[in-house]
């Protein structure tokens, strides 16, 4: 890509006139418009980059360049190679801008493919060199800068701005690969500012593309800030590590950058693990000598910190699953350490005891977060039941609170000292869950129509709630949340109990009156001369029985004699056949039949 030499002056014209004629010539040339980012993203989505298949995308870029050259008749000739440079003054179609664009994309895809191969070699323990990927990125940057020059001269305002942002983004990738954090950050910030302005003046799909590009660049800028902080002598914190984990979830991020961020977060965890040497459980400090265990505990702390940031129920459940996943890994590491200690001849009882205590600590943490998850599920069901959701019944809450009671008892069994503050708190929480379980069990009995049992269960729940408040008062930590919930439950149960009693009385009295009214209305007027029956408007009153009921009477022969003259005999002619004459043929047929049997 060499610049075209300046045109020679002819007919004795002075150089000043030649220089003045160039802008006039550029003004007369047509201006092209090409949505660069949309073209790139469409090609990437359709050719493998959704699954990080950089080799496939690189081959596509090669074929695309060849097709464009043939369509524009801008090939390098047949046989002997003739170099043809892209010059702004000679561009006749906007498709010419596709050539430097896909040359840059091809070099960038090849560099990403090379970085994937480097990662694979590093995982295998083989030597790997970054020189190849850096050279390819430099080539992509060169084509991107050439595209920017062409668009500034022959493109409209939007195309020129897009090419400048694309060139800054590609140049930032080169600087990022060279570990020049400050310069890389400046390049990405320059591209970010251009894409922000483009997002303001566009709408629809183009705006979504620019916004997504901004989201992709934000983790890169944060990564540069982190490296600048480390190079200045600062230390990474737990929040920094958690932020790197969040940045890896950005949709559309480069897979190689995602791996790099993951490696940085792991390095940060290892540095923090050096200062984390023990955990405390039941008033005892448990040392951790294994680096893997320390890193696993730090990951668990990060996962627990994510719980407080979640506001959506589904995201909260996913955060709980992540916590359980991390603690399961830690439990597996402890089991492996105990197996390794069992095979050692020079093991001490102190080491074995520490590992058992650490295993107990991990199980206690898992049970604690199981209780927290079940409480979140119970709170959601409580809200839905208050809103009269059709799919929520008191049975669901009864089962859930039964699980919470069992979880509290299991966790209390893990503490040797039942008088410690943690054990007292668990005991009080168990009474809270029992009170709620009894209240919802009473609601279930009420739905089943068992009103006396429901009233008795409400009384039981009220007694448990008073006992719960007494136990909560003995806790050393703040239990205002549970106290307020129990007090609200008491008020709710008083109203529910009165409603159940009123419902039972109404059903008992209305059923007796209904039975009496039903018996009166079904009898005829002759049978209820001394009783008053209410007849609703439009209802047919039953005055007599019709048809009348048949009563048995004694029968005498004279009754049948008197009735004989009025009896109409039935016609039985259809039950016999008329006899017809058979003739000679019939007689012969009958004779033959007799002979043949």
Please state how the strands of the largest beta sheet are arranged side by side: 1-2
- Form type: extended
Number of strands: 2
Helical content band:
55-70%
Multimeric status of the protein: single chain
Largest sheet: 2 strands, antiparallel
- Which structural class matches the secondary elements? mainly alpha
Write down the overall mean pLDDT. Answer: 79
What is the count of helical runs? Answer: 19
Give the H and E element order.
Answer: HHHHHHHHHHEEHHHHHHHHH
Quote the distance from N terminus to C terminus: 122 Å
Strand content: under 5%
Low-confidence stretches: 1-25
Q: How big is the Rg? A: 46 Å
List the helices and strands and how they pair.
Elements: H1 15-28, H2 36-46, H3 54-72, H4 98-124, H5 131-154, H6 157-177, H7 181-201, H8 205-231, H9 238-247, H10 255-273, E1 278-281, E2 284-287, H11 291-307, H12 313-343, H13 349-386, H14 394-412, H15 421-447, H16 451-474, H17 480-522, H18 557-564, H19 583-595
Antiparallel strand pairs: 1-2
Helix pairs in contact: 3-4, 4-5, 5-6, 6-7, 7-8, 9-10, 9-11, 10-11, 11-12, 12-13, 13-14, 14-15, 15-16, 15-17, 16-17
């Amino acid at each position: 890509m060499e610049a075209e030499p300046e045109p020679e002056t002819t007919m004795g014209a002075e150089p000043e006139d030649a220089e003045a004629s160039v802008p006039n010539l550029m003004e007369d040339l047509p201006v092209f418009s090409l949505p660069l980012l949309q073209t790139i993203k469409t090609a990437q989505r359709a050719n493998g980059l959704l699954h990080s298949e950089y080799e496939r995308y690189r081959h596509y870029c090669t074929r695309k360049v060849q097709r464009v050259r043939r369509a524009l008749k801008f090939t390098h000739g047949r046989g002997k190679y003739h170099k043809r440079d892209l010059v702004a003054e000679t561009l006749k179609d906007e498709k010419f801008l596709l050539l430097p664009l896909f040359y840059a994309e091809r070099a960038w895809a090849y560099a990403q493919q090379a970085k994937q191969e480097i990662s694979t070699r590093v995982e295998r323990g083989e030597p790997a060199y970054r020189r190849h990927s850096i050279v390819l990125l430099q080539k992509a940057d060169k084509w991107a800068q050439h595209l920017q020059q062409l668009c500034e001269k022959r493109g409209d305002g939007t195309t020129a701005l897009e090419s400048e942002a694309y060139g800054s983004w590609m140049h930032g990738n080169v600087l990022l690969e060279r570990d020049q954090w400050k310069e890389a950050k400046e390049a990405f910030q320059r591209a970010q500012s251009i894409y922000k302005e483009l997002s303001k003046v566009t709408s629809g799909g183009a705006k979504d593309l620019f916004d997504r590009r901004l989201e992709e660049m934000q983790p890169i800028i944060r990564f540069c800030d982190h490296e600048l902080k480390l190079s200045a002598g600062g230390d990474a914190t737990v929040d920094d590590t958690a932020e790197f984990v969040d940045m890896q979830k950005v949709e559309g991020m480069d897979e190689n950058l995602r791996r790099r961020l993951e490696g940085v977060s792991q390095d940060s965890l290892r540095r923090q693990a050096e200062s984390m040497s023990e955990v405390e459980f039941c008033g005892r400090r448990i040392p951790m000598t294994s680096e893997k265990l320390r890193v696993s505990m730090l990951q668990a702390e990060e996962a627990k910190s994510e719980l407080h940031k979640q506001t959506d129920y589904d995201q909260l459940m996913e955060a709980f699953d992540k916590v359980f996943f991390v603690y399961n890994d830690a439990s597996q590491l402890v089991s492996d350490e105990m197996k390794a200690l069992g095979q050692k001849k020079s093991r001490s009882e102190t080491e074995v005891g520490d590992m058992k205590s650490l295993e107990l600590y991990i199980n206690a943490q898992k049970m604690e977060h199981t209780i927290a998850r079940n409480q979140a599920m119970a709170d959601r069901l409580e809200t839905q039941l208050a809103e009269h959701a059709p799919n929520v019944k008191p049975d669901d809450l009864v089962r859930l609170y039964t699980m919470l009671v069992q979880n509290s008892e299991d966790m209390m069994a893990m503490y040797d000292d039942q008088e410690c503050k943690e054990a007292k708190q668990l005991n009080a929480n168990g009474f809270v869950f029992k009170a709620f379980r009894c209240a919802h069990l009473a609601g279930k009995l009420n739905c089943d129509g068992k009103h006396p049992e429901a009233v008795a269960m409400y009384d039981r729940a009220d007694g448990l709630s008073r006992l719960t408040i007494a136990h909560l008062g003995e806790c050393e930590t703040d239990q205002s949340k549970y106290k307020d919930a129990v007090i609200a439950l008491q008020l709710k149960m008083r109203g529910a109990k009165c409603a159940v009693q009123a419902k039972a009385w109404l059903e008992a009295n209305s059923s007796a009156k209904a039975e009496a009214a039903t018996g009166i209305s079904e009898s005829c007027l002759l049978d209820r001369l001394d009783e008053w029956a209410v007849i609703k408007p439009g209802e047919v009153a039953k005055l007599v029985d019709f048809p009348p009921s048949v009563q048995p009477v004694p029968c005498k022969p004279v009754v049948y004699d008197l009735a004989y003259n009025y009896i109409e005999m039935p016609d039985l002619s259809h039950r016999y056949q008329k006899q017809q004459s058979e003739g000679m043929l019939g007689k012969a047929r009958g004779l033959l039949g007799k002979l043949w049997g």
